[in-house]
């Protein structure tokens, strides 16, 4: 797996991050460790989780993913070779939603214990909190950074103007600025008016103005659900409705055309496009088996030409 130098911070990481949402729950503990082993052995060092994975499934409370990662790190003794990110802000059993200072500090301590590490490399504000002043949230991150408990901060599922406002506060107060942005983003474009998949969804699509802000301010960009949970490759799955806009048919036609030209799988082409277009995204790859992770990792070997990227970008425009 290719190693990349990050923007604005002194870190080198793998160009694909491993998403671990269902590790130690829907993906059992042993399978989770097998996937972690395969990813690490193939050059991966960027592991992404969250405090509340997966509190919404009956029988689980949240923290399960962090715990299995912590066990794996302790067993493999490879902490110094990893870049670990986790998140705070969404609710889990016994923990309310929000980005209040006391809550962030408390949940950071809990994540550190579950992960069995001393420092979180990247700590995300998982979801916008309109009830808490941004300055209070940023102050909490500043305290944790000064204590050596986190190294960098990231933002996920915030509107672009809130990201800009937060970074302006950080510049004024000397607080840490968002070094990463993690959003739902894929090859197919969302229809106008659908920043969320549903009214209750917490997963915010990357809007054009958010992408522009991230690019212009050299914020490292991560994308999740890039493969639409298998909808590109599995004919038994429907493309989510918010991606069925006026240009979706043409974009799918060009995607299939480029896929045939490369000889790769359609999922590999989507991942390669995400890493090689102007955003130079770090996609979150995941799966329930080593075979799925293997296919995703091999997307790094798919060489799209400048012409192919341009055709994919401009399809349906």
TrEMBL record:
Pfam families: Aldo_ket_red (PF00248)
Gene3D superfamilies in the cross-refs: NADP-dependent oxidoreductase domain
Protein name as annotated: Aldo/keto reductase
Domain of life: Bacteria
Organism of provenance: Fredinandcohnia salidurans
Residue ranges constituting the NADP-dependent oxidoreductase domain according to the UniProt record: 16-313
SUPFAM superfamilies with a match to the protein in the record: NAD(P)-linked oxidoreductase
